[in-house]
Specification:
The protein is an alpha+beta fold and 166 residues long. The chain has one domain: 60s Ribosomal Protein L30, Chain: A. It is 37% helix and 11% strand. The protein has 6 helices and 4 strands, in the order βααβαβαβαα. The protein has a 4-stranded mixed β-sheet with strand order 1-4-2-3, with helices on both faces. The longest helix has 18 residues. The N terminus is likely disordered.
Length: 166
């Protein structure tokens, strides 16, 4: 395996590192998608509009078990963030073996503890073919998270009250 350092790579512009950075980006895209799709009445701020112009997240890589409570929201958040860019494939959530964490930290230039990474969508003709290959592989082998309960809630209609009297 060749020695890879993300810091020196042109790929670095397409990678979000850390729980807070990835989470903030997903939340911003989710806010825009909610306003665009009429899910809530939150006003879309100019900052939200700017985030909608920022790259779609192609995949989120989680280096900790998804059953940790702090990560339980990620499948729904990835789903709702995907709705900000309906013309692009949905964001994938990839659970990695925690044993790869030291190698990921080394590739990031020695970051002590990395729990989450995200790879953003590419504009055609740009650099970083290795990341493009990774995204293509992930899309072929990992299903996008779904939020069936959210789809039902979005399509909800009032059925009225039915009382059985005996």
């Amino acid at each position: 395996m060749k020695d890879v350092s993300l810091e020196k790579s042109m790929c670095a512009a397409h990678v979000l590192v850390g729980f807070n950075e990835v989470n903030r980006h997903l939340e911003a895209l989710s806010t825009v998608s909610a306003a665009k799709n009429g899910i809530n009445t939150t006003k879309v701020t100019p900052e939200d509009e700017e985030n909608n112009k920022s790259p779609h997240i192609a995949a989120v890589f989680l280096l900790r078990p998804l059953d940790d409570l702090i990560y339980a929201h990620l499948p729904t958040l990835c789903y709702t963030a995907s709705l900000a860019h309906l013309d692009l494939p949905k964001t994938r959530l990839v659970l990695l073996d925690p044993a790869v964490q030291p190698k990921v930290a080394q590739a990031l230039g020695g970051s002590a503890s990395v729990s989450m990474l995200a790879v953003t969508e590419f504009v055609e003709g740009k650099e970083a073919s290795e990341l493009q290959s990774l995204i293509q592989y992930v899309r072929e082998h990992v299903d996008a998270p779904e939020a069936g309960w959210l789809k039902k809630a979005m399509n909800a209609k009032w059925l009225g009250t039915k009382i059985d009297v005996q």
